[in-house]
Structure prediction request, 393 residues.
Amino acid sequence: MCITCGCGTDSVSIESKIPQHGHDHSHGHDHSHGHDHSHGHGPLDAAHAPGTSSERILQIEQDLLAKNNGYALTNRNLFAKRGIFALNFVSSPGSGKTTLLVETIKRWQHRTPLAVVEGDQQTSNDADRIRATGAPAVQINTGKGCHLDAHMIGHAIEHLQEGQALKDDSLLLIENVGNLVCPAAFDLGEAHKVAILSVTEGEDKPLKYPDMFRAADLLLISKTDLLPYLDFDVEATIRYARQVRPDIQVIQVSTKSGAGFAEWLDWLQTGSKQAQAAKA
Amino acid sequence: MHELTLAESMMEIVESAAAQARVTKVTRVRLSIGALAHVESDALLYCCEIVSRGGVAAGACFEVERPPGRAQCKVCEQEFVLNHLALGCPHCAAHNLLVLDGEQMKVVEIGVA
Prediction:
């Protein structure tokens, strides 16, 4: 049982390899489900038989995301209080998120402290790659889960704090599960979602997955060193992204050539300074 | 499949409402998922059935209504129905839109016996 919020044990696990002064545990919310059913559809999308005539109606009007948004607010308040600039990196699998983070950490050169939270269904490979740079990293394994949620991030923050690895005025880089669908709906308390789209993908992904690109404040177009070998139309991608999010900022980067990194690091530094200045 | 997570949230909301009302049987759950919300209603219904098994809402009728989205064009200032995020203003074709409605995901009401 988790001490802080009483959540039970199940398939989500968090592993930090940071010396902990408190407890170590795994937790989350999972149930095992069988499925064997059939359902029909009436004029409304509906499942199962209509209710009985003796039923009473109770008005509820409650948001399905209210609980997640409550945890996200707690995280956001903590970041604000401590001047932490937190980013939520989202993309399809294979866009180069982890490599981008590794190269960003190397080039950031301790301008501020930083920490990383890695989200994957399985393995701690990504956190191991981050730790090889010397930066503290917490790995969240979501098991069957397809996205990080604010509750998991709250626990990852606890792990970082217990290891004194979450510093005031730092960067917190959260790498979400590679998935262009589900993570769009879940606020983690971050300052910005940063969408990464590599040039080996289709340029119309912003139109195919509009929820994600609409939720992002910054689009990083990655692997631009490969452009000479591809027919990828960068301008079309930017146009499509602005179709779903007119004010999205765009930076083109290559971890191989270093192109665009000056602009990307400037963007990070500006955000970090703003977070520090706004510290209560 | 974030619909499973949303269905679990639905279940928590319904269980807590049922406990508060001191009822042991929920016969109907009505959800409102705006047309612009990030959800497939078939997948959500499927997940609702699964997570409700063995609980207070086992066998309940789950209904999803999908109210249309509404937006205002920031260029020509007209208001219109918008049911897809990548579509532009039907009057001036601009994409600079302010979404006014259609992103909600909520439990509206439950029927109890």
